Predict the 3D structure of the following.
Amino acid sequence: MTSAELRQSFLEFFRAKGHTIVPSSSLLPESPGLLFTNAGMNQFVPIFLNEVPCPYIPPRAADTQKCIRAGGKHNDLEDVGLDTYHHTFFEMLGNWSFGDYFKQEAIAWAWELVVGRWNFPPARLYATVYQPGPGDPAEFDQEARNAWAALFSAAGLDPDVHIVGGNKKDNFWMMGETGPCGPCSELHVDLTPHGDTRGTLVNAGDSRCIEIWNLVFIQFNANPDGSFRPLPARHVDTGMGFERACSIIQCTKNFTDFSGTISNYETDVFAPIFRKLETLSGQTYTSTLPRHGLLGLTERERKDVAFRVIADHIRTLSLSIADGILPGNDGRNYVLRRILRRAILWSRALDLREPFFFQLAAVLADTMGDTFPELRQQLPTIERVLKAEEENFNRTLDKGIELFNQFLLSSHNPASTQPQIVPGPIAFKLYDTYGFPLDMTELMARERGLSVDIEGFDTLMREQQDRSRAAQKKEIIGVSETDDSIPTATFVGYDQTDALIQVATYKIDFGAKPDNPVLARLYFSPTPFYAEMGGQLGDTGYLEFAGRRIEIIDTRKAGRGIAHLTPDVDLLDAIEFPVRAVINPVRRARIEAHHSATHLLHWALREVLGPTVGQKGSYVGPDRLRFDFSHLEALKPDQLARVESLINQQIAASFSVTWSERPYAEVKGDPSILQFFGDKYGETVRVVEIGDFS
């Protein structure tokens, strides 16, 4: 199969199993704890956490997800180019069950697809199951082992050979220190010439036996105290390495020849990029791999590493920019800048000194544009950003090389028999100021018979990392407000400013002392109070009963309920039902005005700057609004004046603001209706219209 056929085969297989095929979410993650979307499950976290209802009927989904692992906990950057399978960007094929099917079906369908549909040789497959070690959570996953054992036995294979146990490190998946988690089963493929390793290479870090699919069975919640509580609903979360599956099928000629190199880079995923790069550089890609690691590369090995690095990095940069993440000076933006600079550094091995990197983006638009249409839509922006960054770094690169050469001239003593060392501060300055990765500094040093003061570099790096960590906030991810006593909230505030309630429950948040209540969270339904969401502040108001009032100072989401915050803790036991819940209508009207103005601002920015403007966040309150958006450069004074004029013209025209509820399936295909930064929508959505333009 071609890569496009394999991707389509996966999606069609699960469509036939009742799954809704959903588009990839943005590489810009919704979780503030992530640099990039790094797994297929990221977009489904709100469903796993019971924060939003599952919008799919039946509750199953499948997709191919754009992922980046180049920073933070998951970081493959320094391995890219040196082996056959590490990438900064990759696609993850996945199927999902939200409280529907579980281990038996997930395992049976995995086998049916891989063996029955794609014809992977069963004798080369190995499944891992969770086998806890000392201190590990949960029990041995007997259910998963039984399911795999039946399949291997039916294929005439010994389950004791083809099923391998793994502890928490290898076979217990966790989203973070806290949150949804559970045992997992991985599917590994023996790629040795004879396929007779009998499982000895599974999880051994050997490229001759690689994992292609991980089936995660989410059945627990990890709590901050270290305990694991069973979830009310059990879920399936799988992730298959798209590039790895392609390489196994294509590099073995449909499993007929395992004698050659099986590499993700030897597939039609990367071949078009290599062809374009060969044209631009006048060099030829010959597929050699380093025999002795990064240092001591031959000239041929160095060129082929450069081909792989550049081909990988153009995918990361192009798809990130298409999603509105631009190279910059901090956070995820700096990671992208580092990746781009790493590609440009390696391009010197191909004698490329003029801007070239941006010209590779069009190849991706051609080959991946059907799956990720944003590549074609944003191609002019991608090329413009890459070219500007490339031109800037070419100047920086020359200065860095000049600094390195100045050090050589000032310190190298040809007559000395002692090894010359590049000091840590020089290596760190090359890294920190000029964007030189340490491995490139080491390579330049080794080519001149020098070594690098790694310890000194590491000391400076640790100092920088300590400063960075000191500025970070740690977020605990958990299933919030899942107590059965909290009612599912029905929001009636679109049409009502007050409502009668017959029953309520509350929880009290205490201060420094147990007898010092600070706030209480009241839960009831129906409610006219809008909960803070999408940047819009929650409503305030009061509860009224028997001539008394309880002040509501904020409203927030709490799972499927709504928490109404009050400082009037002493009145809670005196509540007499029915109770009248009333919002502050003046404050709500001011928020509504700023919400409408946000839509007007977005429309005007797109009119002036073009359709690449994308909303990335907002604040909508009674006092003001703030609108965050992605664009290549800051607004110029004349552009700002034009935006202001357009908005004021529409306000002066007194267009009506209308809204309606429509099926999401109908709205999803309508290009005139904007959908914001990865919001999750149910089957029915509320569409707001201003005049005939927003």
Residues 472-482 have pLDDT under 50 and may be disordered. The first helix runs from residue 3 to 16.
